[in-house]
Amino acid sequence: MPLDPASCERARQARDARFDGRFFISVRTTGVYCRPICPVRMPRAENVRFYPSAAACESAGYRPCRRCRPETAPGTPAWAGPQATVARALRLIHEGALDRGSVEALARRLGVGGRHLRRLFVAHLGASPAAVARTRRAHFARRLLDETDLPMAEVAAASGFGSLRQFNDTIRSTFHTTPSELRGAPPALARGETHLRLPYREPFDWQAMLDFLTPRVLPGVEQVAEGGYRRVVGEGWIEVSKLPDHHALCLRTVGIPPTGLALVAERVRILFDLGADPAQVAADLRRDPFLAERIAARPGLRVTGAFDPFETAVRIVLGQQVSVKGATTLAARLIESAGAPAEGAPPGLSHHFPSPEAVLEADVAALAMPRRRADAVKALARAVAEDELRLGAEADPEELRDALVAVPGIGPWTAEVIALRALGDPDAFPAGDLGLRKALGNGALASEGQVAERARSWRPWRGYAAHWLWAG
Fold it and tell me: How far apart are CA 238 and CA 226, in angstroms?
């Protein structure tokens, strides 16, 4: 992504935290690269260069600074707007798509050629997909060395390295030291438990996120309690809480194998929208005075995402034309009927959400819901099970909308909300939503066309605007 050197220099001189993770600073005389907030003595302007990503710095031969720790910066949000293909590819890379697969295979999942994908990455991130994946593995390994007591072999496997030798070589070349020298005193944790920090940019309204999730949690699968979020994951469970006095959430995992940690961490980042750039979103939306008042009253709202896109999509379909409480009741019946029991989880967590295949086998129509909605749930599960509908990171939002409305019983409102939450599309906007029509009706009920027209100037952040309107 093109960077304005003058703007970057002003942010560097001010150590402006709003730019943390949006670009990185390399220092020619030391061979290191830093975050804009690095506390070390300010290098001379003629000795610095600016890069759009950590991978670009490392591809240029620089190593991470040991003071500001670039691997702990919030995720780079710059790619999210300019190039949707890059955004989708990055989500897949962070889920491990290149740990065992090739760039060509990744490109095929996105519907583009490998050469074109490489060209897009160099243009927007300054580094190839393979370099981005390598940096992601090295940085995640560094965090595991700091924050867990996992043995070296398990750190290597958890970070996506194919062998311990590859892990050692990459750590040496990236950080110019050995993994053992990087590791400090390991934390004292119970066996099978890890704690990871997931950074974000301020402001972040954590309580608003919990308030949104509380009435929508899937009973037995997830839970909001004691100021945090819990859910069943595989053979274990996780707990997410806000770290006081830190710009980070704490992800606690219990019973999650090391090889699953990176994927779980990425799913939590998506669920809580930790990659957002709230300053940029608010700056663009505040141009509308109607939204400016709401942003000032509730700064830091995020678009609540999905830990598992399929279960969230089913929950949204169940919520068609009923209250939030009614949809939660229907979800509880489906989970009780078709979900698999969860062993060893804390009180309140008892089941796994049913898979698409389990939903197809269940008698959904017997769960006291309208026949048309039961048929829609079945049709959605069938489309996902037969790979006719992909809800993962590779899905193109526009293509997904078309595919969803082709499913019997799913209309535009449902398709937009699924795009908003299951795909994290920041511009998804259910213009026919009753709450949005009330919020924009000035005491009356605005039409869907009026809502859509009013929201035109809010692009590409209409999903965030919807959250501010719902919160009001």
Answer: 14
Residues 6 or more apart in contact with residue 49 via CB below 8 angstroms: 25, 26, 28, 60
Q: Coil, strand or helix: which one is 269? A: helix
Choosing from 277, 308, 427, 433, the catalytic residue is 433
In 162-288, which residue ranges form alpha helices assigned H by DSSP?
164-175, 179-182, 206-213, 261-271, 278-285
Q: Is 278 helix (H, G, I), strand (E, B) or coil?
A: helix
CATH number at residue 380: 1.10.340.30
Which pTM does this prediction carry? 0.91
Look up residue 96 and give its two tokens. Answer: 């491990």
Residue 48 falls within a domain, yes or no? yes
Q: Is residue 458 part of a domain?
A: no
CA atoms within 13 A on the CB side of 97: 23
Please name the residues in contact with 235: beta carbons below 8 A apart, sequence gap of 6 or more: 255, 256, 257, 343, 344
| DSSP string for residues in 354-395 | PPHHHHHHS-GGGSSS-HHHHHHHHHHHHHHHTTSS--STT-
Residue 459 lies in a domain: no
CA distance 336 to 351: 8
Active site residue 433: yes
C-alpha neighbours within 13 Å on the C-beta side of residue 36: 24
- Kind plus residue range of the DSSP H or E element containing 82: none
- When pLDDT is cut at 50, 70 and 90, the band that residue 370 belongs to is confident
Judge if 99 and 42 occupy the same domain: no
Let me know: does 73 contact 20? Beta carbons within 8 Å. Answer: yes
> Cα separation of 17 and 415, whole Å?
36
Tell me: the pLDDT tens digits for 70-85? Answer: 999 987 554 444 467 8
Domain that holds residue 322: 309-428
Point out the catalytic residue in the list 8, 20, 34, 427: 34
CA 302 → CA 18, 95, 113, 188, 388, distances in Å?
16, 21, 33, 33, 30
Q: Rounded distance, CA 184 to CA 191, Å?
A: 19
Please confirm, yes or no, whether 34 is among the known catalytic residues: yes
Q: Which two tokens stand for residue 91?
A: 């989500």
What average pLDDT does this structure show over 208-223? 96
In a domain, 451, yes or no: no
Other CB atoms within 10 A of residue 64 CB: 26
